[in-house]
Specification:
308 residues, alpha/beta, 12 helices, 45% helix, TIM Barrel
Length: 308
């Protein structure tokens, strides 16, 4: 799957991933109104609105991008109907040949970790049959519990030729409370980065590992250090746009081959129509605003990387 991600990045010339993180207040009124007319102001109605909103965005941008990253919490808050919308979104994106990164941030040990891995990336045994649960291509994992929490995921990834993005240095302001603390004179995130590189050696693709890392765009200097510590690790970079990251902040996340990183933008794309820059496109044409936001993001990153 890492090879598919790389080939799609090269084909689109767009090292970006669209975060499908829907909140009800992002969803245009006409979509909510139609869903509520059919299902009422219920969890089912909210889930239908989310699904239709997502579908509109995917239809507008699928040909420009290599991947999407649905954040599961935005669906879980609507209970079982929300989770059904999550699964429909995953399946629809895969039908459009997009790589799907399930942003699930799981972190547990032993059989529990294995169950999470099977549920999202593998196949579960039911009698004489096996079934893929959510069936994403990659998943995000919290490494706080160490190898006991990560190895069950790697085992499933090897079976299914799928991958992970492991949290190393996150984009949120308080990340330094733990991640920047010194351990034997070095920040913890560096030690985690080195461990991710080690785990990655167990599951290599042709040039990059199936085991990637998450490093926030809001910390470009730390990204520079981590890029050197993890030369064969693909880096998922959140924090672009709405969280303050810009194209010029991203140069050090990429390798000399122009690969090695994929940059996430969520509300900066899916709620683009709410921004002053795209307001003229209008709420009814929200998906067109999302498409233009993707085009602008690709241009920004390409310029920063010296590709134009």
């Amino acid at each position: 799957m890492i090879q598919k991600l790389i080939s799609k990045i090269q084909k689109t010339n767009a090292p970006i991933v669209v975060g499908l993180d829907p909140m009800l207040n992002y969803i245009p009124e006409h979509i909510q109104k139609k869903a509520f007319q059919e299902y009422g102001e219920t969890l089912e109605g909210a889930a239908e609105a989310i699904w239709q909103y997502n579908k509109g965005i995917v239809d507008a941008v699928w040909d420009l991008i290599p991947a999407v990253k649905p954040q599961i919490a935005m669906y879980e808050q609507f209970g079982i109907p929300g989770m059904e919308a999550y699964k429909k979104t995953v399946d629809y994106c895969k039908s459009r040949d997009l790589v799907v990164i399930g942003d699930i941030k799981r972190g547990d040990i032993g059989s529990t970790s294995a169950a999470y891995a099977v549920g999202h990336l593998g196949k579960v045994q039911v009698g004489n049959k096996t079934y893929a649960g959510f069936d994403e291509d990659f998943a995000t994992v919290n490494p706080y519990l160490g190898t006991d929490g990560v190895k069950p995921f790697i085992d499933v990834c090897k079976e299914e030729k799928k991958g992970l993005f492991i949290l190393v240095k996150t984009s949120n302001p308080s990340s330094g409370e733990f991640q920047d603390q010194l351990v034997n004179g070095r920040p913890l995130y560096e030690l985690v980065g080195e461990k991710v590189a080690q785990w990655g050696e167990e599951h290599m693709g042709e040039t990059y590992s199936y085991i990637g890392a998450v490093v926030g765009a809001t910390y470009p200097e730390m990204g520079k250090v981590l890029r050197k510590l993890m030369p064969k690790t693909f880096i998922l970079v959140p924090g672009y746009g709405a969280q303050g990251g810009q194209g010029k902040d991203l140069v050090h996340f990429f390798n000399e081959d122009g690969l090695g990183a994929i940059v996430n933008s969520s509300r900066g794309i899916i709620a683009a129509y709410k921004q002053e820059k795209y307001a003229h496109i209008g709420e009814l044409n929200y998906a067109d605003a999302s498409r233009q936001a993707v085009v602008d993001m690709v241009e920004d990153i390409s310029k920063a990387l010296g590709q134009k």
